[in-house]
Amino acid sequence: MTKTLYLLDGMALIYRAHFALSAVKPIINSKGVNTSAAFGFTNTLVELIKTRNPSHLAVVFDTEAATERHRIFPAYKAQREEMPEDLARAIPDVKEILAAFQIPVLTLDGYEADDIIGTLARRAEKEGFETFMVTPDKDFAQLVDEHSFIYKPGRQGGEVEILGVKEVKAKWGVEDPRQVIDILGLWGDASDNIPGVPGIGEKTAQKLIAEFGSVENLLTNTDKLKGKQKESLETHREQALLCKKLATILCEVPLGLELESLKRGDMDVAAVKAKFSELEFNRLGSRLFGSDFQAGYGAAGKAPDVKKRGEENFQLSSGEEEAGQDGAGKSSASEVGGTEGAEEMMSGLKTLKDVEHVYHHVQDAEGIKALVEELREQNVFCFDTETTSLEVLEAQILGISFSWKAYEAVFVSFSRNPKEAAEQLAWFAPIFSREQQTLVGHHLKFDVAVLKAQGIEVRGKFVDTMILHSLLEPDKRHSMDYLSQVYLGYRPIAISTLIGSKEQGNQKSMLEVDPLALAEYGAEDADVTWQLHEVLLPLLREQGQEPVFYEVEMPLIPALVAMEHEGISIDLFALEEFSQELAREIRQAETEVFELAGHEFNLKSPKQLGVVLFDELKLVEKPKKPKLANTPRMSNCSAPWPRVTRSWPACSTTVKPANSKAPTWMPCPTR
Asked: Domain span at residue 28?
């Protein structure tokens, strides 16, 4: 059996995991701790163990002690920013996880992790090992040979990349992987603050090393070069040699250990389970120990003592048969949890069947009248609409849920007949129009806008739990499901249990949902939102954010709803006429330019335009070519910084024709 040694570049993998997950969807446990770095690193470790089954394994870290590189070049790595607090907090967790897995952690003052890995790889080769250097760092390409490989973990679910001699030669354009050192010496390495030779980038460095073989040979043959390139290399001769030395990974570090001491043993199951439970790593625990593993995500939440739910807890108002109670108690919506991939991380959460609650379902005139009278007595209550669409102007209201006490809620089902539904909704107009009341909701702007589209003006003081949480924890998720898991230790009914999902190809309309299941789903929404507002408001006071919330954020809701409802008026005919006029002017200007130039050319091409202006017309005797901005070359950086992209949202504004009084709406032309 081939002996395989896997050496993990600890800090590089932790950085990579932290920024990759935090930039997209950070993993926050019920204690509010960002565990992205520890989770990502451990996920890579578990995947490697399960799929590669290494015979020998170790994780290597840098220390804070200075190295020889710092001594000969004080600016080495000096540009790096201070480690983020969340990431620094993760390092002890990672080392405790490694201890639980009984995987050696290697460090040595005065040497970097790269040097320790290089030394072990060369020693392992002599002892008949195949070595895999687990790292995203490009510098390790110089160590690749017939028995040493780079193992790059996949990004965002992508495939693992294993680089051998063939792959390194193709990627770097070299004859020998060791020539990567020479390329880095000329090109530099922004992540380590190695400057390289000014004016020489990656492609030029590859070309020069392909031609001359090494930095030293290049420097003895600068007479074969021309212009700025020759001048720069001759001027920065010593710098080129220094940079090559800085980029060279040492392979003779004095390590007092035998490779057999890195032989992989059995994990300490109890210690791993304890650490996974502490960090709430349900998914990883399930992979290692089976689906029975529960880390108790949300265990610190404020859900009440568990009392098994009885079927009678979902009460029905007049107009429903007694037989319907059993059906409600066995509703699939109440028994099936979320199915959108995150269920493995929620195994310790309570659900509706675990808590005592009283939800009422109203669907006739008598029930509505009784509810309206009860709402008149409430100065503060939560409400939530259930609709057929997320498009305000297209949405049909299927029901409204109300709650003003934890674990109690009422859902009002409206008729599917638009005329009858409008009559039912009208009963609530006086309730929503009261100025001296507080209305609680999650993403209230949508609910207020839906009601306004149906002719119901919503007034009063608003408390939006989504915006409230965005003030408390701006960098975290703000969905009702997420907040419920973190603050209540509770998992609400997933919408996919009602209407399926596009991914599975079984999504249906809300109109097709069983009314009892919809009533239970809607009532729970209002109940959970009410509980969240009770938990979050005290935190808002503690942080002194009440003035911002009540004086800035909440007054914006009715203002934005009014603006979106009104839309903007556009004269499409005037725009079309103006467009044609501009087109005529452009064609006329092009004709004049071509006449002056004496021929036609591509006006949109800077290169062709430059030839016409300066070579043919000679408008300037010695034109100066602008230099490209000296922007950081992120492709030159091996550190796993997050890739930042901008995605400009499509215009969602609706427009009403200026010359029409009819309530006809159309998509905004700017879409």
From this structure: 3-262
- E strands in 417-567: 438-441, 461-464
594 and 522 housed in the same domain: no
CATH number of the domain where residue 438 is located: 3.30.420.10
CATH of the domain at 192: 3.40.50.1010
Q: Pick from 208, 232, 262: which residue ends a domain?
A: 262
Q: 259-300, pLDDT tens digit by residue?
A: 999 999 999 999 999 999 889 888 888 888 887 776 654 433
Residue 590 has pLDDT above 50, yes or no: yes
Q: Which residues of 535-547 are buried (b: 16+ CB within 10 A; e: fewer)?
A: bbbeebeeeeeee
The DSSP bridge pattern shows strands 397-405 and 408-413 to be: antiparallel
d(CA 142, CA 639): 17
Alpha-carbon span 52 to 426, nearest angstrom: 65
Model pLDDT, residue 320: 33
Q: How far apart are CA 438 and CA 435, in angstroms?
A: 9
Encode pLDDT of 95-134 as tens digits.
999 999 999 999 999 999 999 999 999 999 999 999 999 9
Q: Are 385 and 400 in contact (CB under 8 A)?
A: yes
Using DSSP bridges, classify how beta strands 461-464 and 568-570 pair: parallel, antiparallel or unpaired. unpaired
Give CA–CA dist 488/304, Å, rounded.
9
Instruction: Identify the domain boundary among 262, 287, 321.
Output: 262
Cα torsion 296, 301, 304, 310: sign: negative
Residues 235 and 358 in one domain: no
Task: Give the Å distances, CA to CA, from 110 to 14, 100, 246, 259, 428.
Answer: 21, 27, 14, 21, 74
Query: Which residues does 316 contact at the CB level (< 8 Å), separation at least 6?
Result: 324, 325, 328, 360, 361
CA-to-CA separations, 404 to 195, 364, 410, 532, in angstroms, rounded: 64, 21, 10, 12
Q: Is residue 464 part of a domain?
A: yes
Do 241 and 312 sit in the same domain of this protein?
A: no
